[in-house]
């Protein structure tokens, strides 16, 4: 499936994009409440680095755009898989909508240069992911995002739940979760 190209590293950032001040993967929402996942490689790295992004949802996923020059993701009704390499000092972005209340994200970037996207240590896996403008790290990687009670879909502007599966396999798993705004308060952002 081909989707329209989004702005890439030039001419500038996408409106609403957080400042990309550290290499890693940024999860955020734009003014239209579309989800974005932005992979950013440090300008200090000597070569391109591998990344791997997997989004799974209980409802339909609609891939809306991919940065110009970025690898094309594969997309199915409830899953997006995006793999490739990102050159030093460059960012790539995908934009999508979720028509459901629950999704799991597994987001990996080779930050140590060993050629493997997934960091070896569990603690390092979550440190490379930054959520919304506050740029808090998720509690785990992979992690889940769940719509607030009473909502029919999960949107990036909501005070959604963020957590992870402690037993079972997504979407049939037991989840430990927190409200994102509580985590942002703890981080000193609110």
Short account of what is shown:
By secondary structure, this protein is mostly beta strands. It contains two helices and 13 strands; from the N terminus they run βββββββββαββββα. The chain has one domain.
Keywords:
7-stranded antiparallel sheet, 2 helices, mainly beta, 7% helix, disordered N terminus, 190 residues, 6-stranded mixed sheet
Oligomerization state? single chain
User: Count of DSSP E strands?
Assistant: 13
Q: Beta fraction of the residues?
A: 35-45%
**Largest pleated sheet:** 7 strands, antiparallel
N-to-C terminal Cα separation, in Å? 40 Å
Q: Bin the helical content.
A: under 10%
Order of helices and strands: EEEEEEEEEHEEEEH
Strand order of the largest sheet: 6-7-4-9-11-12-13
- What is the residue-mean pLDDT, rounded to a whole number? 94
Tell me, briefly, the overall form. Answer: globular
Structural class: mainly beta
Radius of gyration using CA atoms only: 15 Å
Q: Helix segment count?
A: 2
In the predicted model, the low-confidence regions spanning at least 5 consecutive residues are 1-5, 7-11
> Could you say how many structural domains there are in total?
1
């Amino acid at each position: 499936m081909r989707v329209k190209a989004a702005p890439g590293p030039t001419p500038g950032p996408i409106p609403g994009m957080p400042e990309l001040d550290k290499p890693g993967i940024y999860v955020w929402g734009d003014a239209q409440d579309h989800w974005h996942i932005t992979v950013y490689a440090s300008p200090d790295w000597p070569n391109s680095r591998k990344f791997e992004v997997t989004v799974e949802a209980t409802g339909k996923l609609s891939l809306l755009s991919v940065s110009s020059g970025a690898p094309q993701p594969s997309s199915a009704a409830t899953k997006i898989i995006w793999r490739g390499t990102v050159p030093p000092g460059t960012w790539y972005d995908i934009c999508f909508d979720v028509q459901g209340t629950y999704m799991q994200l597994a987001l990996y970037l080779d930050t140590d240069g060993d050629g493997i996207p997934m960091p070896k240590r569990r603690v390092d896996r979550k440190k490379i992911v930054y959520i919304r403008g506050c740029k808090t790290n998720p509690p785990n990687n992979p992690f889940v995002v769940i719509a607030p009670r009473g909502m029919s879909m999960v949107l990036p502007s909501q005070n959604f739940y963020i957590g992870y599966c402690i037993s079972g396999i997504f979407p049939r798993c037991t989840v430990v979760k927190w409200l994102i705004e509580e985590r942002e308060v703890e981080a000193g952002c609110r």
